[in-house]
Every structure is written in C-alpha cells, then in structure tokens.
Automatic annotation (TrEMBL):
Family under the similarity heading: Belongs to the protein kinase superfamily. Ser/Thr protein kinase family. MAP kinase subfamily.
Reactions the enzyme catalyzes: L-seryl-[protein] + ATP = O-phospho-L-seryl-[protein] + ADP + H(+); L-threonyl-[protein] + ATP = O-phospho-L-threonyl-[protein] + ADP + H(+)
Alphabetical UniProt keywords: Activator, ATP-binding, Kinase, Magnesium, Nucleotide-binding, Serine/threonine-protein kinase, Transferase
Protein function: Proline-directed serine/threonine-protein kinase involved in a signal transduction pathway that is activated by changes in the osmolarity of the extracellular environment. Controls osmotic regulation of transcription of target genes.
Entries under InterPro entries matching the protein: Kinase-like_dom_sf, MAP_kinase_CS, MAPK, Prot_kinase_dom, Protein_kinase_ATP_BS, Ser/Thr_kinase_AS
Origin organism lineage: Eukaryota, Fungi, Dikarya, Ascomycota, Pezizomycotina
Protein kinase domain span: 20-287
Region Disordered: start-end pairs: 266-287
Description of activity control: Activated by threonine and tyrosine phosphorylation.
UniProt name for this protein: Mitogen-activated protein kinase
PANTHER family: MITOGEN-ACTIVATED PROTEIN KINASE (PTHR24055)
Cofactor needs: Mg(2+)
Documented EC number(s): 2.7.11.24
Amino acid sequence: MAEFVRAQIFGTTFEITSRYTDLQPVGMGAFGLVCSAKDQLTSQAVAIKKIMKPFSTPVLSKRTYRELKLLKHLRHENIISLSDIFISPLEDIYFVTELLGTDLHRLLTSRPLEKQFIQYFLYQILRGLKYVHSAGVVHRDLKPSNILVNENCDLKICDFGLARIQDPQMTGYVSTRYYRAPEIMLTWQKYDVEVDIWSAGCIFAEMLEGKPLFPGKDHVNQFSIITELLGTPPDDVIQTICSENTLRFVQSLPKRERIPLANKFKNAEPQSRSRQMIARHTSTHKT
C-alpha cells in the first residue's frame, strides 16, 4: 500500500503519495486545485490536480470520470498527458500530469503577443483540436486558462472535465461566457465540434487585440455584442431555435449588418493568413 503524506496548499490539505515532494501552489479553479511537485521516480517536475469531493454529487462524479477517461486515451503533442492517478485516504482524486510553466490567460494579461507567437499558438490550438475532434470528442470549455504553455512556446490543451463524446443532443450550459458559441448560449442542443472552433476564433482575436472579443456581462449582453460585429443571424438559422423564449428574444433584437473583419482587426497584416482564418471561421459559423 502506498504511503501518503500531507501538505497544506491554498488552505486545503493535499494528501499525496510519498513519490511526490516539494509541493508548490500553481492555481485553483471551480473544480480543483493544482500544485507543482517533483516526481522522485523520474526526477521530473509534474503538476498535481486535486479533484475535491469527486463523488459528492452525480454531476461531479460524471465530470471526473469523463476527464479521466479522455486523458487516459488521448495522446497528442498538443494535449496534456496523464502520467499517474491516485485516490487519497480522504477519497479525493489526484491527477498527475506534465508541468508547463504558464497558461495563455497569464500571457495575455502580462504583455502583448508578437505576431509570430500568435500564429504559432493558433496553429497548435487547431492542431490539438483536430486530434480531439477526430476522436469524436468536443472539448466544450476552451479558453485561455485551459491552454498551457512552456518556455519553448509548446502549447497543450487541458481540462477535459466538460468534454463530451459528440452526441446529437448536447447539454446547453458549458464553457466560459466570453468564449461560448451562440448555439450553446441560446440553448440550441444540437451542436457539434464547431463550438470549439468558435472558442478558438475568440481566443485568436484576443491574442490579436489583447482583450476579449465578446466581453458580455450576461447572456443577453453577450449575444448583443456578437451581433454588433457579425450581424443578425439569417432567418433560417433563427427558426432552428427550440426555446420559444429564446426565439422571441432573438427576434426582438434590431437588425444589424456584419462589420467587415478587416475594419475590426486593423492591426492584422492584410496578406497574413491570420485575418483570413478569422474571417473563414466566423463566416462559416451559424451566426
């Protein structure tokens, strides 16, 4: 039986096997805490994510199981890799993964990104998504804080707790608002991998502009900001909305025309592939 040791991180107890030492706090989220540690077996630095009370509710149990199952099977250069997992005597679950130095959110809030880094990061994001989507998986919560980066600018997508195997009927409430696709926001349940591409486009725009593209205060304000840039959705798309309340809300909005993206992203080089890619993503999306 493995020997466990305790340490206080973020005011909570980390109860880990003696294989891992030198714990240091890294970050915290709604569903878990992360610290760095040294793996005595490999002498490598690792990240340890504590899933608190994973069996306390059916929702948390499903989320933990989904993330574990996907991390066990997904193997790609741009996807975080799982190296170990254990359950503590207190019945918390710990995921051990490779350690990267920072995340894209921290980078974006610390300094403007140079164009070559923006293009390289976008390439890696889309490369990772292509692999995930080819496995029939939708991430559903892609955002800068779920994109890890190391000192060599290698990028890895993490946090698959909300990811799902693609299904015709998907639950509606997922992803952080700024990066949430309209079909999720408007409670369309029939959505697919395009919601991740929408999130990637929002992240790309944030890398270009240094601020969120659609910083909505709530769902209503979020959708209004989207239509200010991309215009009113066509009638055939509006008619696919299932919720009567949502349909009335969308139909009550003033008609708006799409703003040319060349006007919005004036700092992007006209000849670059970057602005062309934003245009392609937004023009082919449902809005």
